[in-house]
């Protein structure tokens, strides 16, 4: 359904990721793990088209993804970047409406669905996004990405700076939308416990490449691997 083949890229003349290949099946939750600086965020930006490809390609439903990030979004690629990046001077519902409309979807339906799916946003619906807590902004960023009706949802460090209660709520939300909507989810994270609670398998990165692909139970049991590659 969703493949990355020999992804190579970086910034300017500096190559960060090299020859990375991954395959994500429909409705699957997969973790992308690794220490800080191994290239997880760069790979996410490569997938979304935010950095140019020096080599390789992204395939969505067997078709090469177009170069422009907006066109990749319309092909079904949703993205929540590290740091959230909500529109701070827009209200919660305006953030959701803009995301839906930009991808040709009904804004009112998207708002109604988001407030139903994310009760934490109901009382904040008319508040400026910039005034929300970090955890609330993360939930809003997730709601905004879902308003584009993605087939594949990419999350870059979604638990960063988020309090444990919100992380638990986010875990439940992701499992529910995955089950109900069949959306494939790729989570780039350092929070191993969070990933093990929802992902079926993981790709672990080291020095800009995939070191190993491993299923959840093997990763959970392999404390040596956790320490070597993840530092936990």
Keywords summarizing the entry:
alpha/beta; 6-stranded mixed beta sheet; 232 residues
Quick description:
With 232 residues, the chain is α/β, with parallel strands linked by helices. It has one domain: Rossmann fold (3-Layer(aba) Sandwich).
Could you explain how this protein is built, in words?
The structure is a single chain. The protein is an alpha/beta fold and 232 residues long. It has one domain (2-230): P-loop containing nucleotide triphosphate hydrolases (Rossmann fold), CATH 3.40.50. Helix content is 38%, strand content 28%. The protein is built from 9 helices and 10 strands. The longest helix is centred in the last third of the chain and has 18 residues, at 164-181. The radius of gyration is 17 Å and the shape is globular. 40% of the residues are buried. The mean pLDDT is 92.
């Amino acid at each position: 359904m969703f493949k990355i083949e020999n992804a190579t890229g970086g910034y300017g003349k500096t190559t960060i990721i090299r020859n990375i290949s991954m395959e994500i099946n429909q409705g699957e939750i997969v973790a992308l793990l690794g220490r800080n600086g191994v290239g997880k965020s760069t790979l996410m930006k490569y997938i979304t088209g935010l950095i140019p490809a020096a080599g390789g390609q992204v395939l969505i439903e067997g078709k090469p993804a177009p170069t422009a990030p907006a066109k990749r979004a319309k092909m079904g690629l949703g993205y929540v970047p590290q740091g959230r990046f909500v529109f701070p001077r827009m209200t919660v519902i305006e953030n959701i409406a803009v995301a839906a409309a930009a991808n040709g979807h009904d804004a009112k339906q998207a708002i109604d669905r988001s407030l139903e799916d994310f009760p934490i946003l109901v009382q904040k619906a008319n508040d400026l996004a910039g005034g929300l807590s970090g955890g609330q902004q993360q939930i809003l960023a997730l709601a905004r990405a879902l308003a584009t009706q993605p087939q594949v949802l990419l999350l870059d460090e979604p638990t960063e700076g988020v309090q444990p209660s919100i992380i638990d709520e986010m875990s439940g939300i992701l499992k529910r939308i995955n089950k109900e909507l069949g959306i494939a989810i790729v989570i780039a994270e350092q929070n191993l416990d969070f990933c093990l609670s929802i992902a079926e398998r993981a790709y672990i990165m080291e020095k800009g490449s995939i070191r190993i692909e491993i299923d959840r139970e093997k990763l959970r049991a392999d404390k040596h691997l956790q320490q070597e590659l993840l530092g936990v």
